[in-house]
Amino acid sequence: MIDWVCRHPSLKYVLEPAFGLGVFSRLLLSRKPEVEITGFDIDPVILNEARNSFKNFPNVNLVLADYLFNDWQNQYDGILCNPPYFKFHDYENKRTLKEIRERLKVNLNGFTNIYTLFLLKSIYQLKDGGRAAYIIPSEFLNSDYGTYVKRYLIDSQSLNHILIFDFKENIFDDALTTSAILLLSKDASTSSVSFTTIESRQQFEQAKIQIKHTGKAPASNIIRAKELNPDIKWRAYYQKQLSTKYKHLIPFKQVARVVRGIATGSNEYFTFNREKVKHFNIPQSYLLPCMTKSKDAHSPFFTKEQFEHLVCTNANVYLFHAGKSPKDPAVWNYIKLGEKKGVHKKFLTSKRTPWYINENRPPSPIWVSVFNRSRVKFIRNEAGIYNLTAFHCVYLKSDLFSNIEADLLFAYLLTNIAREIFSDNRREYGDGLKKFEPNDLNNGLMLDLSRLSREEQEEIKILYHAYRKSVLENKENQAPLEEIENILKGKYLRR
Ligand SMILES: C[S@@+](CC[C@H](N)C(=O)[O-])C[C@H]1O[C@@H](n2cnc3c(N)ncnc32)[C@H](O)[C@@H]1O
């Protein structure tokens, strides 16, 4: 990042908008002692410490103020930044978004993370010929709020390189986000943007050397700036898109609808195991059978027997379901206990009337796990029970245009083909953790199964039942799944 900014032919005025202890400035001064640095930070303790350690540098001016509301009138030759990462509910989001919207005359999504606001303001403050380097989470490249940010990046014609860190190990300590370094400049060299994925330390070292000596990162892909589309996930520019191997793809939402599971606002209060039911004497009619933890469903098939087993092992498998005006005194006592404990004043419960009624989200035939270490996990809810937010619900659409049976859809979802195609649309949280929001799946693609003939559908279902039987008998046999994949590949693989 320092090497990038130092390629400015006459670097003089430099800004570090989230100064902290001034890691960038320290390095920069060791290379260019003559530059004039301005730094901002809102934390007085940190800034005091920083002032102390830079006290022998009269050319470093540190300001205790909010960067996003100050300094709009100044421009800089170089900007270096590792901004704070706050989600929309963790900073003064309304006031800050208003400021940036009005100053930059841009639209912004209410869910915007603060780090992108730092970035946009810094681009605005870059002089002609200026150079900037930002290290930020890569999340905005593939999230909804990122669309406006990407549009601004394109319109400002300042983006040169994006290096995306997709490490198998976590290179930056304590960071549960995947990081990206953005190298920007306001000069004539920005007609195309290079995307580089960095997967190992060795690649990282190589990129550093190359930037230092040539001013360019080794590119995995180069896209003409004019062709960049702010409305798509930019993963398409730096990661191999696996879905392109297949033909006859349709949006998943044409066939099914994915919504998150029931959010209680206090799982500890609302969920019950057998002993707790007994202890509070709650009648069964006030309890719903419910999957509360992802670890309780470890096989692709969740059956009635497995549910009974969980009941016997005293797992939390019931959801409190009092209804609007319960008749049973024990149920009332439990509600009063909740009020005594302040459960009714929690974030979600305080918004409901009455507070103890959970949202109505009927059991779905298929679940999908929210966080996935290695691969997205689908589960067939044969027990027909409810589920909390550890899983999203997958409801099948059944109308004139779509009428796929749950078993056929589930057989498809078990294949590697489905996983490959969905993975184009996932989000990453660093540390190998992959997350699917309901809309990542709704907007994902799938094979158009209605193109299968009756015979093919029947064959797939027979193979599916053979696989199911093997799993339930604890003798999992992958062969039927492989056969299903072969049928699908024969039909949908592009040749
Ligand atoms: C990720 S740290 C950057 C660390 C820094 N690069 C260093 O060398 O220590 C982000 C810094 O931004 C500061 N910060 C947070 N919100 C800010 C704001 N609105 N304006 C200026 N600084 C802010 C924090 O106090 C923190 O020191």
User: Into which percent range does the helicity of residues fall?
Assistant: 25-40%
Percent range for β-strand residues: 15-25%
Kindly report the average pLDDT value: 91
The backbone outline, from C-alpha atoms, is globular
Unique ligands: S-adenosylmethionine
Assigned CATH class of the largest domain: Alpha Beta
Q: Using DSSP, what is the number of strands?
A: 23
Q: What is the CA-atom radius of gyration, in angstroms?
A: 27 Å
Give the low-pLDDT segments: none
Give the helix tally: 17
Count of the domains: 3
Helix/strand structural class: alpha/beta
Question: Which architecture name of the largest domain does CATH use?
Answer: 3-Layer(aba) Sandwich
Main sheet characteristics:
9 strands, mixed
Task: Give me the CATH superfamily of the largest domain.
Answer: Vaccinia Virus protein VP39
Biggest sheet strand order reads 3-2-1-4-5-7-6-8-9
CATH topology of the largest domain: Rossmann fold
- End-to-end gap: 44 Å
